[in-house]
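Subject line: Sequence and fold of a protein, written as structure tokens
Area: Proteins and the way their chains fold up in space.
Start of record: The labelled sequence and token lines come straight after this line.
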Amino acid sequence: MKDVERFLGKSFSDPEVQGWLAGFREADEVGDSGQAHVHHTFKQAGVTLMVDRNSGKVFCFVFYGPQEPSSDYGTYSSELPLGLLATMSADEATAVLDPTGPRLFDDAREKGWETSLGCRVSIELGRDLRTIRSISFYL
């Protein structure tokens, strides 16, 4: 989804959001984890979207990279904004994201940027610290 940022802030029931989700089978998991949001996970497609419980608006998309062999999550294979791919190495994604805006945080397992897209982007690294476990776009 090359233009994920246009869905952020929209109502979960918005026809555009629902139209995009129609491309996946029904969510494998819908839950709230005891937090102020509801997550809708499409494991096979490698996508989770998070919706604010109070406003009903989408505030985060998570796209999964290659997972541990025991995982039942698929790898999201389509291109993301800025030319990112969930299958890139952490170094490749960092090279794409560093020029887009300042780093918000830079931990051993997770890095985050403020971007020119009007949203923030973070990457979570795999156990080897070289692969991407997930890429998140959020408000």
The first helix runs from residue 15 to 21. The radius of gyration is 14 Å.
